[in-house]
Amino acid sequence: MEKQNISNIRKEGTMASTEDLEAYVQKVKQSAQRSGSSMLYCYDWMKYLDTNSNQNKIVEVRFKNTRKDFYINEQGLALSIGDIVAVEASPGHDIGVVSLTGDLVRCQIHKAYGKKLPESFGKIYRKAKLSDIEKWKEAKALEHKTMIRARQIAKDLRLNMKIGDVEYQGDKTKAIFYYIADERVDFRELIKVFAEEFKIRIEMRQIGVRQEAGRIGGVGLCGRDLCCSTFITNFSSVSTNAARYQEVSLNPQKMAGQCGKLKCCLNFELACYMDARKNFPESNVALEFKEGRAHLAKTDVYKGILTYQYKKDDLPVFVELPVDRVKEIIELNKKGIKPDSLLGNVQSEEVGYEPDYENVVGQESLTRFDKKKKKKKHGNRNQNQNQPQNQNAQGSQPAPVQNQQKGTEAQNKPQQGNANGGGQNKNRHKHRNNNNRPNHQQQQGNGGSNA
After folding, report:
1. CATH fold of 137-213, please?
2. Domain-by-domain residue ranges, the chain?
3. Residue pLDDT, tens place only, 154-166
4. SS3 440
5. From the CA atom positions of the chain, what is the Rg in Å?
6. Are strands 58-62 and 68-72 parallel, antiparallel or unpaired?
């Protein structure tokens, strides 16, 4: 029976597509409820609070990439995060996913629009049917092919523009083409070609390089997702003065982001640095005193300490001075007075920067490889060297007696002494081997040695 039911389902195409669409809807709900780093996600920290969330009829709906909008739930539908809904569009309707409900939507509206709130919002028609979802999936499948073909058409028309992305409307009647251009582009002929090619309504929307990076996404040098793809909605201009205020090296390769422009994060702490540097003197002013002239080497903005450098006996010396002391010296120099020292009454010392190492965590010494290793004494070699000496000592015991008897001969004939010594060695080897010989051979050997 089960095999017959499975065969019937395979014959009926509607049943198979229905199951696939329902599985797709569940997958969308799970991904929507899982908070992420994308700009489309927002953690609802007020969902566990007892508030009048049912009175707020405005719902946040997300679409493709970074596009979100707000709609009114006039029919009072029971909506939750992850529900696929059909919303009002011009013309027709669009399909989106509910990303936020409740009182937190009001905060998101003020964050997106500021004080200039729109007069009215679009309407939510209904929860999406399976037929709406099927058409929506077909439209999303055409977006990449349409983008590639649109780029080829723009290249054939020799237009100085780049089409970055294409977004189809949920009812498959309209498409938005996002493009980037440095100059103004006349794309009236391009729209006609697009309409004949794709048989839909065309909308051209220009975006900047930063917005394109936010739509594509990526990971920055800090190891986190790009700020433009997570939370930045309004892109303010960034200048090199932001790097100068924060004492950042003016290296274009490190200061530029993936969009090719200056990083947006240079503006995050700029206001704090500007407030801290209000009382700082100019950095190009040198301090004159009796020992010479000191120039600014480093600035610690939040501590309010300026590090000046001067030469003493052709060696650089660094002195840390507070801002008040630097201003005092500058005023004295304007009057033509040179102080005896930079420090004056300030309790500070000349800083000599020397690297140091402390074994705090129980690590090994950094100079462990600099120590010379002692040579190990090989026991086998020493034993081999000592054995012949001991053997010679044992074998040469009768030598002193012979030398006493023939002292004069040994002095006059040293070469014979060496020969006798060689004979003694021969006798020693014979004495070793006598143990293995028969008795009569040992006697002959002993007799030969005595002879």
Report:
1. GMP Synthetase; Chain A, domain 3 (3.30.300)
2. 35-128, 137-213, 287-351
3. 999 999 999 989 9
4. helix
5. 46
6. antiparallel
